[in-house]
Amino acid sequence: MLGLMQRHSLSISSLIDFAERQHGDAEIVSRRVEGDLHRTTWAAVARRARQIANGLEAFQLAFSDRVGTIAWNGYRHLELYYGVSASGRVLHTVNPRLHPEQIAWIINHAEDRVVCFETTFLPLVKAIYKECPKVKHWIVLCEADRMPTDDDLPGLISYEEWINSHSDQYRWPEIDEYAASSMCYTSGTTGHPKAVVYSHRSTVLHAYASALPNAFGLSERDSVLPAVPMFHVNSWGLPYSTAIAGCKVVFPGPGLDGKSLYELMESEGVTLAAGVPTVWQGLLEHVKQNGLRFSTLNRTVVGGAACPPAMIQVFQEGFGVEVLHAWGMTELSPIGTVCSLKNNQLNLPPEEQVKLRAKQGRALYGIELEIFDELGKLLPHDGKAYGSLMARGHWVVGEYFRPDDLSSSLVNGWFPTGDVATIDGDGFVQITDRNKDMIKSGGEWISSIEIENIAMAHPSVQMAACIGIKHPKWDERPIICVVKRPGAEVTREELLAFYEGKVSKWQIPDDVVFLDSIPMGATGKMLKTKLREHLINHRLPQT
Amino acid sequence: MLGLMQRHSLSISSLIDFAERQHGDAEIVSRRVEGDLHRTTWAAVARRARQIANGLEAFQLAFSDRVGTIAWNGYRHLELYYGVSASGRVLHTVNPRLHPEQIAWIINHAEDRVVCFETTFLPLVKAIYKECPKVKHWIVLCEADRMPTDDDLPGLISYEEWINSHSDQYRWPEIDEYAASSMCYTSGTTGHPKAVVYSHRSTVLHAYASALPNAFGLSERDSVLPAVPMFHVNSWGLPYSTAIAGCKVVFPGPGLDGKSLYELMESEGVTLAAGVPTVWQGLLEHVKQNGLRFSTLNRTVVGGAACPPAMIQVFQEGFGVEVLHAWGMTELSPIGTVCSLKNNQLNLPPEEQVKLRAKQGRALYGIELEIFDELGKLLPHDGKAYGSLMARGHWVVGEYFRPDDLSSSLVNGWFPTGDVATIDGDGFVQITDRNKDMIKSGGEWISSIEIENIAMAHPSVQMAACIGIKHPKWDERPIICVVKRPGAEVTREELLAFYEGKVSKWQIPDDVVFLDSIPMGATGKMLKTKLREHLINHRLPQT
User: Fold this and answer.
1) What distances in angstroms separate CA B339 from CA A186, A456, B259, B279, B453, one per listed residue?
2) Measured CA distances, B102 to A137, B92, B96, B97 (Å)
3) With an 8 Å Cβ cutoff, are B396 and A202 in contact?
4) For an interface test with A, which of B1, B18, B85, B364 has the most A Cβ atoms less than 10 Å from its Cβ?
5) Which of A345, A346, B66, B479 is the most exposed place for a label (fewest CB within 10 A)?
6) Lowest mean pLDDT segment, chosen from A105-119, B179-193, B274-288, B428-442
7) Which of A517, A523, A433 has the alpha carbon at shortest distance from A478?
8) What is the mean pLDDT of residues A245-267?
9) In chain B, how many domains are there?
10) Which residues of B touch A178 (CB under 8 A)?
């Protein structure tokens, strides 16, 4: 017997329609590449999204044709998120931090018919233009009078001229909710990048779940600053979830330095900001150095990499900003877990709370997470057993788009995240490491993240990366690579002594390597592969 | 091109699995018919739901077979919500306030195979037992040693004995998300009741949307008291949405008087309570008469009937409790709108805010609401134009279950709610009346709700109902029926004078009728049909 309720598709068009109808006047503020601050509203974004749809019709783009974007976080990118997907095409967000060669490969692999890019990325486009012959239209995200002229790039179109030549009257088509809406390539460190193809359904369900009070808790009383890029991992789904919630959205454009972010937060009354730990590090440095306070910010979502407990403490205790530690990945749309404390946990002493907040939190309603041992046996939720973290649910990848090989397919319906984690009795997941970053010493595993977090808690340390170095007896031994805070000093011996009592003796690194910087990947994560290559001949001291 | 994300059903089993896994220790507190306070947890509810599933297998109930419940708000009813639906059967909640004849008709129409009822309803079951020969098992929601013995009711089964004879090991089946999960009959005042059949999908999407911060804003920090019955309109979906949010739930059982509710709220730290205005009236009377305060309650959802602005004011200004005015109906699962103010509206003066909160609020994300005139023309969202309110969306009825006739089908895909409403530029809906309660005077419409709200703002008035009385010249003229507060006095003339300046002269009632009580229907709504019958010969004074 079937239910007798109406049947409608879960669709991205319904998100922008809703935002226009119910909070059309909520603001969208964007720092543009031109440097100025641009103000618009959800209603205007909706209108311009319909102009895009008409523009794509005029290009005779078919259903499911791909439209690439190489753009910062801003209103035009938001318009494209909706205009492209809601009209039935597939939005392909391209990460400009990848190598030009990889970008060309990605655009060709996705078969983008149109690519929209910011003027900032003109040199990049020059480098790939000839390599991407199937792209029919290159659109520059600017006014007609700011168009670059370049003989190597014939036929560039001004975005503003393009959309303004089209009507804002358009009726979104009815779309199968399982149809592709957007895609994003992972920044695989080996082999070709792999593409995750989201559906209208997965996107809407992810938006519902991530806006819930136990997750981001988004409401129309929020002013949200997404410091996590729209060109990667869908800016954690915020372009969609803020449409449900009717938030004011504040886009920082390319300016992610501490000063720019802080000023924007203060001037636009930002209540929630979302970003990776390295970006928040810059923000906190700026705020501390200048003796500033946050007047409106009350919570920050930290993800993309494990948030060091020391950072949680500074936000919470120093500034009264609640840290919502989160974990996810491109393959999870991207949000898997958010760490919001339970009622009884809020009564724990502050140091216990920080320990809990250092966990990545619990799965959103809509996905399941489990840990398995090497033989595929389910491990208990006791906060101690650690194993391969696997995911299953509405917004978890099923298969990659036209993969080179099938090695990365599901295991009994579960997606292997590549992370190693524990899960406690309340369902709190703690990522102990990436599978490939775990250090095996004398038959035991050492979590590189745990070793890094301790170093990060030292007042003289700005950034720390722990890697394993080959060892004749123990197989591998950990070393800690450290970037010191400007002007701060700490010796090898002091730092090693700092570990005493915090971990078992055999987990203390064998050595400290001081570096000027740690190589970072295109998505703001530390590139430990590079570090390992760089230090392959590092000689451990005799102990 | 299809998205490449995993495909899973939206299912009610995933709700209870989630609650067990992630907040198994959150409490479920129930006032039982025995009078005592029972404490359990989401984890135990999940275990017992699986025992129910095994019990239903033992009864050889097929997929989609109906299981009726005649029960108060309590943990056993919650267990049935999950055990029945998640195992693939259809939960049929029966409203015990209907006439026994109607109840028998409903149980037969739904073809219930099993009926579970509380000891309170033994007399009712006696009255219908013989009329429902297709019910194979009558289960009493009590322990074996409390079982009633009655020769007229052979074969009664003790719920506790039944479920405890079955294992709590059970694997929920995979279910098509469009399959029926539960059903509820509307309390149609004319003709047979009509059944709405919910699906797993509609139920889960409704739960997602209603838990969002702009709606109920449910989180694991909440202790929720549903004073709206689980035997009707799914207790506004709270049995499902609290499972997503991990709330503590406090079930009042049959005790909805002010004193019982207040004591439960205080002892269980209730933060959010949901109920109809008449229930809150009793609560507020108790609190005011005894000079009490709410120590934890911070918001109350008011729906089922329009919330008088005077009540909003008392809650907000007198007690600091935010009123979330809501509107819905059985056919909408039931939540259609919730009134939560937007950022800029929170800065308005209190009296302006009360005006806004007197509106029923905005459609949840997932449904659409529009108003149409008599010719089916779409009316503008200007807060002035009023017309028939129509609904469309994921949790709106498509068709009734085995209807007597097809007169109640959709109009161009829209469900006619039977309400008359305005919608303003922000999407705020205000119900001006039920279609059938509007009063037509001299070719103009008068909103009975507006006239009632003014009377309700008079300090001596406890309850007020406005109906139209036939008039030779004006077609109809409004009169106001009033129940005075205990000990309070007010004359006809004083009350009529109270209207001056508040509405146009021609909208002021022609007469006041003082009554001891106003007839109430099975779902806590005023029965204006009864009132109209009672006053059919009322003679209007000459004016």
Assistant:
1) 41, 46, 27, 19, 17
2) 67, 14, 10, 10
3) no
4) B1
5) A346
6) B179-193
7) A433
8) 97
9) 2
10) 2-3, 7
Chain B: closest CA distance from residue A214 (Å) = 6
Residue in B3, B181, B209 closest to A3 by CB: B181
Answer whether residue A363 is part of any domain.
no
- A199 contacts B246? CB cut-off 8 A: no
Q: How many CB pairs under 8 A join A and B?
A: 209
CATH of the domain at A124: 3.40.50.12780
**Where does a domain end: A147, A173, A202?**
A202
Take residue B294 and report the two structure tokens written for it.
């709410």
A394 in a domain, yes or no? Answer: no
Q: Using an 8 Å CB-CB cutoff, list chain A residues near B246.
A: 214, 342
Among candidates B533, B489, B530, which has minimal Cα distance to B512? B489
CATH number of A470's domain: 3.30.300.30
SS3 B332: helix
Q: Which two tokens stand for residue B458?
A: 């008079």
Distance from C-alpha of A158 to C-alpha of A468, rounded to nearest angstrom: 50
* Length reported for chain B: 543
Q: Is residue A527 part of a domain?
A: yes
pLDDT digits (tens, 9 = 90+) for A310-325: 999 999 999 999 999 9
Cα A222 to Cα A250, B283, B319, distances in angstroms:
10, 33, 25
Q: Are A453 and A463 in contact (CB under 8 A)?
A: no
pLDDT band at B151 (very low <50, low <70, confident <90, very high): confident
Q: Average of pLDDT values for A99-126?
A: 96
CA distance B409 to chain A (A): 12
Mark out the alpha helices in A67-226 (DSSP H runs): 75-86, 100-110, 122-128, 159-164, 200-211
| pTM attached to this predicted model | 0.91
Measured distance CA(A13)–CA(A175) in Å, rounded: 9
Nearest CA in chain A to B63: A1
- Do residues A246 and B361 make contact, with C-beta atoms less than 8 angstroms apart? no
Q: Which domain-ending residue is among B152, B171, B202?
A: B202
> Is B486 a member of any domain?
yes
The residues, any chain, with a CB within 8 Å of residue A146's CB and separated by 6 or more, are A34, A119, A158
Q: How does pLDDT run across B28-42, given as a tens digit for each residue?
A: 999 999 899 999 999
Closest Cα in chain A, distance from residue B48 (Å): 20
Q: Is B213–A214 a contact, with Cβ atoms under 8 angstroms apart? A: no
Catalytic residues of A: 186, 331, 440, 445
- Per the structure, the complete domain to which residue B105 belongs is given by 8-23+36-202
Range with the poorest average pLDDT among A211-220, A333-342, B13-22, B500-509? B500-509
Chain A residue closest to B16 (CA)?
A: A365
